[in-house]
């Protein structure tokens, strides 16, 4: 027992070990409070590789981005899915995807991700455009209460959430057969936000019964996706249809289990996309010069494609046109760089020596976690000059996307990692970037946009550090009016 309380001792060849003085909890509280600062301070003291005891787990952080490729390429000895399989089922409420109980499921789930990419991306992108237009037209282009000069006021996060949540939902899951939109979307969204607020605690494996109403809210959200309801929806994406079919192959899955799988995908598809859309909109609206450049690029692209824009007709911006919008893409990359804080986690499968750099290697133990924390790289002044500021052309070189960024004079293989890496890379990343582009294009085509004056700069809410795109600490008031 004494040994467990004291924790382990550092062995030869292992990185410096930081245990904290509270048994079990170790450094969890400090880490949870501000992970980025915590890691930067430890890096200064202990170098680029160190092991920290966090909530009973030994986590080895690799801080030098030049070493990232050595971790990312180690598929067999460093596994991602062991970690995901441990935390996702408890968070979303489905039974663990283990191969003895559900043979072949893991592989089929992986295969379903292809339906978010390649040729299927065009169909999804087209469908998203229609759904964005629908929500825009019915909720924001119609007549509504206006102030002087035709301006309307809004809260920016709330605005992004209402449009992106619903348009993404319709694109992935489809719509009721007799209607263009689902009734009760506002309530679904509110429930989702309440669940999402508890998300960091659930991922930290806090028992759901300790979290007040969260269990009942999650049940309500899951029930939305029960098979008898989903079977009445039309225009469902091929991705979701394939997942329904694959879940139907397993007799031991109850209807609520299948519904919980669909709910998890809802979280994956909007949980990061909504805050990411917010940050792009926020940075552009708060940098009017940048906004003007992106707007001009968009008008030029439409003109080149022979599309005449008029407010009464729906616009279509397909995959090929979106690819040409390099300034908009740079604005998205720059916003993701400034707001993403996802941790890349791998679980060590056996004791071994992890080779890092030339002769340098570190010993790691079975069951330990190896972690990359790309926010440290995103905020490194050597890689990104003045890392705190938004620069529209940060990712542009000679009119195309810039891909060479350097550390210690060496070109980085990985320099922007909002979507994870290697085996745990987000399969929805191309769709996500396209839908954010489409959303911004519609905003810029239809509206003049302004921030309300006298608001302080928005800061990041760090409560989900490690888990994806951070939310803003407060919402932002803005004004918009139809362009004349
Ligand atoms: C996984 C980020 C949008 C579907 C991930 C992971 C990250 C991420 C970092 C890896 C998690 C890990 O390493 O633990 C993002 C960001 C998005 C976004 C920043 C938006 C800006 C989307 C969208 C979809 C999606 C739109 C679906 C339509 C998924 C799925 C996984 C995943 C299914 C799990 C993959 C697996 O289990 O191997 N995402 N994502 N994501 N994402 Fe995304």
Give a quick set of tags describing it:
alpha+beta, binds protoporphyrin IX containing FE, 484 residues, globular, six-stranded mixed sheet, three-stranded antiparallel sheet
Q: What Rg, in angstroms, do the CA atoms define?
A: 23 Å
The main sheet comes to: 6 strands, mixed
Bound molecules: protoporphyrin IX containing FE
The N- and C-terminal alpha carbons lie at a distance of 74 Å
Strand line-up in the sheet with most strands: 1-2-3-12-9-4
Contiguous low-pLDDT stretches (5 residues minimum) are none
What number is the mean pLDDT?
Answer: 91
Instruction: Please tell me what the overall shape is.
Output: globular
Number of strands: 21
The structure class reads alpha+beta
Number of helices: 19
Helix content: 40-55%
Report the portion of residues in β strands: 15-25%
Compile the SSE list and pairings:
Layout (H helix, E strand, L loop, with lengths): L1 H5 L10 E2 L9 H6 L1 H12 L2 E6 L2 E6 L5 H5 L5 E2 L1 H12 L12 H8 L5 H22 L12 E4 H18 L1 E2 L8 H19 L10 H10 L3 H4 L2 E2 L3 H11 L6 H16 L2 H13 L2 H17 L14 H5 L2 H14 E3 L1 E5 L3 E6 L2 E5 L4 E4 L1 H5 L17 E2 L2 E2 L4 E2 L2 E2 L17 H18 E5 L8 E2 L5 E3 L1 E2 L4 E6 L2
Parallel strand pairs: 1-2, 3-12
Antiparallel strand pairs: 2-3, 4-9, 5-21, 6-7, 8-19, 9-12, 10-11, 13-14, 15-16, 17-21, 18-20
Helix pairs in contact: 6-12, 7-8, 7-19, 8-14, 9-10, 14-17, 14-19, 15-17
The structure holds protoporphyrin IX containing FE.
Protoporphyrin IX containing FE binds next to helix 13, helix 14, strand 8, helix 19 and strand 19.
